[in-house]
Amino acid sequence: MKSLLSLFLLILTGQVVAHKPSDSYLFINSNDGNAMIEGRWDIALRDLQLVLPLDRNDDGAITWGELRRQRSALAAQVLPTLTIDALHGEQRHPCALTLTGLQAIDHVDGTYAAMQWRGDCQQAPQQLAVGYQFLFAKDPGHHGLLRLEQGDHSLSAVFSNRHRQQLMGIDARSQWQAFQGFIRQGVHHILIGYDHILFLLTLLFPAVLVWQRGGWQPASTMTRALTQTLAIVTAFTVTHSLTLALATLGIITLPAWLVESAIAFTVALGAAANLVPKLFPKRWLMAFVFGLIHGLGFASVLADLGLTDSGIFLPLLGFNLGVELGQVAIVLLFVPAAYLVRETVAYRRVFVPVGSVAIMILAGVWLTERLSGA
Amino acid sequence: MFSNRKIETLSRAASAAAGVIPRGKAPNNHRSAATSHSGFWVTILLLLWCSVATARPYTPDSDDVVLARLPALSETLASPAPAVDPAEVLALARSQIDYASRAEDPRFLGYAQATLTPLIQNASSPAAELLMARIEQHRHQFARARHRLNQLLERFPNQGQAWLMLANIERVQGRLDAARQACRESAVTLPPTTVLLCQASVQAITNQRDKAYVTLQALAEGPAAPQGGSARWLATLLTEIALQQGDTDAAMSHLQDALQQAPQDPYLRYLQSDLWLTRNQSRSVIDDLSGWQDRDGALLRLAIAGQRLDHPRAEIWREQYRARMAADQDTGRERHLREHARFLLEVEDDPGGALALARENWRQQRELADLRILNASARATDDQDTRELIRDFINQHQVVDSQIPDAAKGADE
């Protein structure tokens, strides 16, 4: 009779079961051509309690301290229930996932653990095969809600007891879109690469000037200023493109600390050349030679994006194009402005020398940091 | 780095809309520029499209900050020692399902499913199959539950309870003839009173309603008045029929009988609130349901009552309900569309949205309450297609209900 009673209960209450069923929220971020992926996984504390003894003191409450102390258990027992493989053509690389951060986050039905993670896939994925095994043994009604962000695109999928694998098709995107992605990366990296920008600007400071009678004088014509600018920029572009390609193809390999230190050194030298221009009469030559070093610096970024294995040509071209576009933007902003103020004493006597000294000091600091960090 | 920012932007926009105030310290304030562009529409879109991110991560101020409280029965029902004896397994699963219904906590349905898994996989246990069907029905997986019950009944046609459950599913889905048939079949093992209640629950919707009411009343007042669960079911049916007849006083009186036996039953409590709402007693709704704000059904009624009274918390209830509905989307589960449609119609003043949900709901569920919300939305939008569909259903099954003008008369036919 008791079971009959519960049956009536069913009929009476079949209408609503509120609260919320168990869901976890999994975010994956994958950047074009990048072998590193990262993301966040939010799991309800109630659900975690089923697999980890969070409530150590059995008081029915889970505190931040109790959660925090389980960080290594989360990394060792929970994160491995998520597997991500990067598919690239016929190849399949498992991405090594590591827990990089632990915080709390509030969702509509309470507080969740927010686990930040990173995955090293060795190769930029065309597709991701995601496997999800969390909690199904304890709660087969559990779902994992996956959201993959890639550039401007996003895909969602739901893991359930019956669907524990999802193949996320990044490859649906065209080559052209991927190419555009590399151009954007190139622009991005020149714009955030302050040492490259500083080097270029340092060389361009005097492009609107000529060294005469022991001091900087305004260039007489626009043509003269433009010729100098063009010579510097072209020389820099030619050589850094060359070493970028050579390094990306693996023909040249130098340790990062050495390249980074050398870049800092070139910035310092560029600034010195503004102060004692007699020692460095041909600025385009300086750009040409030091461009070789900066190209190696760009290459390390491109290598971080995970392009060292296959399909190098398009990414390389796109990335380089992006770098040049960013560089042109900087030149277009700086040179006309400098040309307009080139006749002022403030520019010639104050901005150029003081700016150069400041850059020299800054570059010196970088140099020390990068050498000591090695 | 870029991508993290994107997640946070998303989360923050969503949390702003959801009115969620994150506790503790926000660690990444220097990134706030990333969110400045999120306008109203972005927020709405994000809520619908990415309901998952309702807030952004934070690091609590101290180790002592309590992040979550576990339900009281967690220890015994959520992760109990695995039962070995089949009788124990069934008893545990039953307690878990009962708790899920009582507390309206669907996680316990999952725990019950895990408990039952060995029995379902290994041997043919009718009792385990019945419990699985209960779980599926709770989850609104009607097709799956029906399939399971039909398979069970092919092997064990004498399972009265399975017939009773099948009757209920058929009734909920508007297949009234099949429901009547299943009620009849349940007589193989179930007592006559139960069969009578089963039949009355189907008749109640149709022009047999008044006859059923008389029969049920006679049963309630007679010497053979049922006890326990059956008595409660009886009182509930009487309440629903009185409500259909438009007699709210009688409905309230029957409801008190039912509530006396099960004061914490969610279905009865919500029925009571709905009665109060039809009688413009919104204050009583707020007094009664304020302690249940973690439940969607209560929150919906609080939002309706709060809005009618211009209550200071009305906006909060509305936002919370919105956020929960948003979180329910794209989870790959069957949703409670009927209640969401009612929210859109009564609280959000969005009859178009309500109609869309009510029509979607109608494909799954065809109880009187489903017909009522479908009808109200169709009238509010003057949607002729839907009104035609409603008239067809009413004519086919001779539906009578005081709340649906097209079905108000005809009880005498």
Textual characterization of the structure:
The complex is a heterodimer of chains A (374) and B (413). With 374 residues, chain A is an alpha+beta fold. Chain A folds into two domains: 19-172, no CATH class; 175-372. Chain A is built from eleven helices and 13 strands. Chain A has helices at 2-13, 45-51, 64-68, 71-78, 175-192, 194-204, 222-248, 256-275, 283-304, 313-340, 345-372; strands at 23-30, 36-44, 61-63, 82-88, 91-94, 96-107, 110-120, 127-132, 143-150, 153-159, 165-168, 209-212, 215-218. In chain A, the strands form three sheets. Chain A has a six-stranded mixed beta sheet. In chain A, a hairpin with a 2-residue loop joins strand 6 and strand 7. In chain A, helix 8 (256-275) packs antiparallel against helix 9 (283-304). Chain A starts with a helix and ends with a helix. The relative contact order of chain A is 0.12. In chain B, 67% of the residues lie in helices and 1% in strands. Chain B contains 21 helices and one strand. Chain B has helices at 2-18, 40-49, 74-78, 86-103, 107-122, 126-138, 142-155, 160-172, 176-186, 192-203, 209-221, 228-245, 248-261, 266-278, 282-289, 296-309, 314-328, 337-346, 351-364, 368-381, 384-397; one strand at 66-69. In chain B, helix 18 packs antiparallel against helix 19 (351-364). Chain B is globular. Mean pLDDT of chain B is 84; it is low at 1-54. Chains A and B meet through helix 1, strand 1, strand 2, helix 2 and strand 3 of A and helix 1, strand 1, helix 4, helix 5 and helix 6 of B.
Task: Provide tags for this entry.
heterodimer; A: 374 residues; alpha+beta; 2 domains; four-stranded antiparallel β-sheet; elongated; B: 413 residues; mainly alpha; 21 helices; globular
Report the count of strand segments of chain A: 13
Main sheet of chain A, how many strands, which sense, barrel?
Answer: 6 strands, mixed
Please state the average pLDDT score of chain B: 84
Beta-strand residue percentage of chain B: under 5%
Number of strands of chain B: 1
Summed up, the helix count of chain B is 21
**Stretches of chain A where pLDDT falls below 50 for ≥5 residues?**
1-18
Helix-residue proportion of chain B: 55-70%
Class by alpha and beta content of chain B: mainly alpha
Which structural class matches the secondary elements of chain A?
alpha+beta
